[in-house]
Design a protein that fits this description.
Length: 417
């Protein structure tokens, strides 16, 4: 039962054939991103020749910037409170800050947030923002409502180089890593917008565009900023970093005190090698061992994401195999029915197969959840809005078509990626 099995040799061949169509480019792109190194553009590209951006700094770093400029250290705390807690960038309103310092501020710091290009609201409460991060590049942020949560899904990079075969973002090469300020900015905009409706973000997940552990310095800096008591004061335990499996950097998630999610997406190395090229570098054994170490150190469960691809990862034998693979890890498994996108080689699983898979996992004793997908009418799947906008901006104006809206309300199990 614990061994991976294909029903017949023919099944295995059809899987091979199914996956073989794009094997070339996947191999090539894996080679182009070993260890996620210097060849990739860095967040510094976004910082060229401008004043320091206030939103890029945790409190201590901002104190250092200001003292380096000959200013008092306590000004940093005052600015944090005004900007993040009282939400003003208007220096004239900062009444407890000396007039001299207020007059100097525009020459010392910039208060630069990504520009909102579009905000979309779904019939099911999902919201999505499209941000301009300069040089014609856009990113997406999605708010996903559930019974007692409003979870903000933030992006960490423009595009992604991990080349996961089922992922729309993975088809768009990574153009730039985001700065901490651009990550914090996604939250600030979302929170401001929700505030008008008497709501607030309760959870943050790094599950938007990009691989957060391919941009670790800026991602962990943004987490510090989000957590700062004199600023946004967001609880670390309400923040989840999701990774495709950059194993050596998982201890940084533990250190940061945030929750860990891992995109496992396959019940064994053979399939994972094919759908997630990163597995050739760090296989499931190494990945799950890193998860186990994290759970021990953090005393927290890890979330394992598992995308159900029709006839590739959604079979009952694979549910059993997945259970065997993960049964010794304190984890909850999120099943995500594949969200189809233009040009994909995969199919969405049949609903009855999804239920069978979930039931088998439950029968075996796994802690398993089916991720309900929302926001289809606003293209809430990872990377879809951006590509539509970049390709054909006029198509998004004003709001999505009625037919898509209707589909979203009827569809309750599609997955948000
Ligand atoms: N790069 C990180 C976080 C962003 S991807 C990671 O891979 O974990 C967020 C989640 O969306 C991952 O679990 C990924 O497996 C899933 N995903 C990507 N494309 C999808 C699709 N088309 N349908 C369903 N889930 C998808
Ligand atoms: Fe990148 Fe995550 Fe998409 Fe893989 S699933 S290509 S790591 S965004």
């Amino acid at each position: 039962m614990s061994e991976r099995q294909f029903e017949t040799a023919e099944d295995q061949n059809s899987l091979e054939a199914h996956l073989a169509t794009t094997a070339g480019p996947v191999e090539a792109s894996l080679e182009a991103q070993p260890g996620l190194p210097e060849v990739l553009p860095t967040a510094k590209d976004a910082k060229a020749s401008v004043l320091p951006n206030f939103f890029d700094f945790p409190l201590k770093d901002l104190e250092a910037v200001l003292t380096g400029l000959g200013k008092e250290k306590f000004r940093a705390r005052q600015l944090f409170q005004w900007v993040y807690q009282k939400r003003t960038h208007d220096f004239d309103l900062m009444t407890n800050v000396s007039k001299t310092f207020r007059a100097e501020l525009p020459g010392l710091l910039e208060f630069r947030l990504p520009k909102v290009v579009q905000e979309l609201k779904s019939v099911d409460g999902t919201r999505k923002w499209l941000f301009d991060v300069g040089q014609g590049m856009t990113i997406e942020t999605v708010l996903i409502p559930s019974k007692d949560r409003l979870t903000l899904c933030v992006s960490s990079e423009v595009g992604c180089n991990m080349a996961c075969r089922f992922c729309y973002t993975g088809k768009q090469k990574m153009k730039r890593r985001l700065t901490a300020g651009e990550i914090v900015g996604q939250f600030v905009h979302a929170q401001d917008s929700l505030k008008k409706d008497g709501l607030r973000v309760t959870n943050i997940v790094f599950m938007g565009m990009g691989e957060p552990l391919d941009n670790p310095d800026e991602v962990f800096k943004s987490i510090k900023i989000l957590h700062e008591a004199d600023g946004l004061g967001f609880s670390r335990k309400k923040i989840t970093v999701s990774t495709s499996g950059i194993v050596p950097l998982i201890p940084r998630v533990t250190e940061a005190g945030v929750r860990l999610a891992v995109s496992l997406n396959a019940p064994n190395d053979e399939i994972r090698n094919k759908v997630m090229p990163i597995n050739k570098r760090w296989n499931t054994k190494a990945l799950l061992e890193a998860c186990r170490v994290h759970t021990e150190a953090s005393k927290d469960m890890v979330t394992l994401e598992y995308v159900l691809l029709r006839d590739v990862t959604d079979r009952i034998e694979q549910a059993r195999e997945l259970y065997q693979l993960t049964k010794n890890i304190p984890c909850k498994i999120n099943l995500i029915p594949f969200n189809e996108h233009p040009g994909t080689e995969f199919l969405r699983p049949h609903q009855e197969q999804v239920v069978k898979f979930q039931n088998e996992m439950i029968r075996l004793g796994a802690h398993v959840l089916l991720r309900k997908t929302m926001g289809r009418d606003i293209f809430a799947a990872c990377g879809q809005l951006t590509s539509l906008y970049e390709g054909r901006p006029e198509k998004l104006m004003p709001t999505p078509s009625k037919s898509l809206t209707t589909k979203a309300s009827a569809e309750t199990t599609v997955s948000l990626s």
